[in-house]
Amino acid sequence: MRIEWSRMGVFASVPLVTVAASLVAIHVLNRFAPYLPNWVKRVVHWIHTITCELLAFVAVIVLLPLSCRERRRVNPGGGRPLLLVHGYFHDCSGWVYLRRCLAAAGLGPIYVLHLGHPMRSIHEHAETLGACARRIEQETGRKDLALVGHSMGGLVAWEYATKLAPPDTVTDIVTLGSPLAGTRVAHLGIGQSARDMEPGSLFIQELQRNIAAAPHIRSYQIGVRVDHLVIPYGSAFIGRGPARQLLIEDLGHLGLLFSSRVARQVAAWLQTER
User: Fold this and answer.
1) Are 129 and 30 found together in one domain?
2) What angle, 0 to 180 degrees and rounded to 10, lies between the N-to-C axes of helices 152-159 and 202-212?
3) Nearest to 147 by CA among 135, 130, 163
4) How many CA atoms does the CB half-sphere of 253 hold within 13 Å?
5) In what order do the strands lie in the sheet with 71-73?
6) pLDDT digit string (tens) for 50-99?
């Protein structure tokens, strides 16, 4: 009986080894993709994107049961507060990786919040963000605040900064895969927040006017070329200079939340301006 169980364990481990080897091979091939012909490079990046997106989706499902109350990581010295804002039909558990990376880079204190019912309008989500911002100010004694938003969270951050925040309090906004000009996929969504994200909606038109009227807020955008939720992918950018934008060829929408490359870029931007 022991021999049979041992054999079963060996056979069961074979698929895991195969999967692990395939992931390593895809990663290595993607690293060498820039040296390959353009059409091969695009195919390799696409395979890497889909693979990372599937892994990120599994990670999101695993992380969902985590408690999502407002939490923070306090760093020595207590610098400018940083608030991370999640996206549509998600919660703050998705920030577990980036939050640790940004804290390790010396940023913070870092806060996350749960926006609540996903069917509410983006303006209502911004009001929830505002209540959290006031608590952060009371706790830290600092009025300056940097915001990082993923997907819809970037729109929530801008709505708060341009319509609800006291003057000169939001210093920086970093958006990750945020449909700042709307996304066609929103037509398939449910709830007022989905209606707000439709291209050409009254909300999007007003938001873009408000962003254009707020050049004093330093803004940075990261987007991905193969984004199945932000269509067209160019919607993730608002054109304030290439130094404040990053287009990634080999990641997807959810993959942004689990990328060391994204974490390094966000940290570099916010460390420069703090």
Assistant:
1) no
2) 60
3) 130
4) 22
5) 71-73, 110-112, 82-85, 145-150, 170-176, 218-224, 245-248
6) 777 777 677 777 776 665 555 555 554 578 999 999 999 888 888 999 99
pLDDT in tens, 176-222: 999 999 999 999 999 999 999 999 999 999 999 999 999 999 999 99
Q: What does the alpha-carbon distance between residue 239 and residue 203 come to, in Å, rounded to a whole number?
A: 19
DSSP class of residue 186?
Answer: G
Residue ending a domain, among 11, 30, 63, is: 63
Query: 99: closest CA among 236, 244, 253, 262?
Result: 262
Q: What is the largest CA-CA distance in the chain?
A: 74
Q: Which two tokens stand for residue 231?
A: 């269509």
Same domain as 100, residue 55: no
SS3 243: helix
Are residues 133 and 37 located together in one domain of the fold? no
For residue 254, give the CATH number of its domain: 3.40.50.1820
* Structural element, H or E, at residue 161: none
Q: How many C-beta neighbours within 10 Å does residue 60 have?
A: 16
Structure tokens at 107: 């940023």
Question: For residue 74, what is the DSSP state?
Answer: P
What pLDDT is attached to residue 8?
47
Q: In whole angstroms, give the CA distance from residue 234 to residue 265.
A: 19
Contacts of 168 (CB under 8 A, 6+ apart): 143, 216
* Nearest one of 102, 84, 36, 92 to 60, comparing CA atoms: 92
14: containing domain: 2-63
